[in-house]
User: Fold these one by one.
Assistant:
Number 1:
Amino acid sequence: MSDWLISLLQEMGATLRLPVSFVVIEFVGTFAFALSGIRLASAKHFDIFGAWIVGMATAIGGGTLRDFMLGVNPFWMTNGIYFICCALAVVWVMAFGKYLIRQSNTWFIFDTIGLALFNVIGIEKTLNMGFPYWTAITMGSITGAAGGVIRDVFINEVPLIFRKEIYALACVAGGIVYMLCNMAGMSPEVNALLSIFTVMVMRILAVKYKWHLPILQGEEEK
């Protein structure tokens, strides 16, 4: 890895209040979440700019809400690399769009990866700012799930978090794993890997075996 790239990652890590390894995780999560939004937008025949907007909203929406709640400037306002990352996701969908749209599980894969990666970013950043574990778990869930809510609103779908599927609860489970590992003295990277694994496995198993929380059976108003 060249010196300039290391220097860039270190500078961004200081700005984002994250270790360098987590900056890499954030970029991968940004690209994955942007792909999930752009993939759904392209399936609904959005134009290129509209798809890019949906991808951007998916990728930065949760982190923006998190940063507002933590009282800091939204992360994307200090570096334009996130706009470029989402633009690359548009190019990727344009190049491989027919395959991505034809395969119904590609959206689920990208969404699950983004959810798991952004969850640990929210947790680590919140802990680095001195907040307690319960706040970090909450901020991790918001970072992971809120972008998907904004994406679904933009494409005129009922947000996934409000449907029967286990979504934000997977983030909570991943946050608890991160907390336990951190309390056990493990490194942040190990904490992140185990948390990411937990979120992804829980999402996959929940969809495969149709796990869901109890449904409220209230009567509709007439």
Note: The mean pLDDT is 85.
Number 2:
Amino acid sequence: MLPHSKEWLNSLLVQQGLSQNTAAAYGQDLDALQTFLEQSGTDIASADDDTLLLFSAYLSKKGDSKRSIARRLSCIRKFFAWLYEEKYIAENPAALLDTPKLPQYLPDVLSLDEIRRLLSAPDPLTKLGQRDIAMLHLLYASGLRVSELVSVKPTDIDFQKGIIRVFGKGKKERLIPIHTTALNLLTAFLQNTRSLFIPDPAAADNTLFLNRSGKKLTRQGIWKLIKRYCLLAKIQGNISPHTLRHSFATHLLEGGADLRTVQILLGHSDLTATELYTHICQNKIQEVYARAHPRCHNEELPSN
């Protein structure tokens, strides 16, 4: 283990609320650097910018993808910045470290008709269907990450104000408005259906959406549900809970929402992440233009 790496990771867990999974990934990135330094006969104190450039080349030669290399170098930059700030090193060799440019992958987004079909797919006459209708409507109404959805408690929803409180990455709290249709479905679910999922009130979980055993739904469980409902709704593609989050953001922007508002609703710390959705909207604008403009179909304009 690199000197001071455990101290740094602990500080991220305690001070920044970093998840255990992310901390473990950072630990693997630091281990990769340690392996490289050992092979090259260099220690952390004598590492300079050339050392880190060679590390980047080492990762590429090893076969790591650009995305993996970018993630590792991002971790290394943060680690060295912390070492410098804590005065463990005299200079920060990672200050000017570049990361490989990544291709921009536009996320899948459902059309409004596909959203309508998906929301209508569960059977409203069954308790599972009533739960899933409320869950799908909440996902699309709020843009929640699935990791946030599985942790929502009934007390997190203010039904009078129409607001849900969620804790996102880094345990950052945000308040998201929910439209009336979703609120009504959630109210009906809580009043009439949720108790049917609780065979043993003493052992029941206090989260909003429960499985047949009265325990909270897992991320994998929700992923499987959405896959099943997409089949029922005849929606093709690699659809996941995150697709509803992408659709939420894209449809808001198409409806006239400003980028800063969507950033706040999604809980993005960096506006760059939200700007990705503007590319999706631009693609749709170009498609509409290509369909609608007469010159795109080689049609002659009428003469006066």
Note: The longest helix spans residues 271-292.
Number 3:
Amino acid sequence: MIEISGYRSSIFPPVDSADENGIVAFSRTLNCRMLADAYFHGIFPWPWDENSPIPWMFPPERGVLMPEDFHIPKSLARELKKSDFYLTVDQDFEAVITACAQTPRPGQDATWITPEIIKVYSEFHRLGFAHSFECRTPTGELAGGLYGISIGRIFCGESMFYRLPGASKFALVKAMEIFRKLQIKVIDTQMVTTITALFGAKLIPGNEYLALLNKYRGEPIKTFSLD
């Protein structure tokens, strides 16, 4: 069991030492204790490929989606209302992260979700830090989803995917219902994409993110459920 309350001091250099690209450090290894320490201090890994050292990032600006700013465009609300998707949580984390790794990204030749990332984050899931939100068809097939990390009242969204139109958006909308119920205060999106901007994500300076992190971080929420 890992308790992040023990990470008041970090194994990583101070985030204000990050270079112009937001790189705080490099490592050849990756494990759950490193992840717990990193997320507690606002840092995340972003591998370039399977063979290079792993960069640990604290970008100068951070994408955030605040629950109070979250909104659903009217056209999307109508579309989602007609869908027959349903949500499950933490039923198949490895399937979700693997699907995210296999999803082509515009402008990217490779995925940062390497086999090592899949292996270690799956273990992080078993320890209660990482969670998956699965959008399913009426027959139970996985249509889309997202996964991320719980650090107290902050949820760090990592990646999304879809196999059917609207599936990842459905998963995010339903996940937000759970976040609000659990009084999650900040959804860290790392960057702002076309999809997250649609719902109200914005960029804030790194020092503002640190202030939010210091206020709301804590032990992970172990159970995310609509019930």
Note: The chain is about 30% helix and 25% strand.
Number 4:
Amino acid sequence: MSHLTDVIVPLLLAAVAFYALSRKVDVYSALTAGAGEGLTILLRIFPALVALLSAIYMFRASGAMDALTDLLRPLLLQLGIPPETVSLLLIRPLSGSGALAAGSDLMQQYGPDSYLGRTAAVMLGASETTFYTIAVYFGAAGIHRTRYTIPAALTADFTAFFTASLLVRLFFGA
């Protein structure tokens, strides 16, 4: 006998297909149009993603990430933030996919159930890709001057990182 979770996705797909058919929607055309849009988006963001990930790996390979981690270690320890999360702290405001890669690296190195893995996961969920979000939303609204938005958003990101470290330590221990 299969588990309920083994049949949920096929049942959801069938329900959506039957609903679309009842509304006389051409499901195949809608599916291929959506796939085409997905590929267009992929082609648009792929160069930026490759450049960003290359820059991150070069930053790490050059030893600059280790030097910055060593420089910030006393301050981060005073604040209760694991110094190993420096890459995540620096990348998250810039790129969600880059931050996800940095978080994934931390989880692979230390394990997802470790203090660092849990802290990285909570940091990822509690913070935002500040500069991307500002560019998209302010650009869509035609706003060119961000004034206090960036300092306020970066303060919120730092607060999220600090609070994530604190709450993981409180709930799971260090």
Note: The chain has eight helices and no strands.
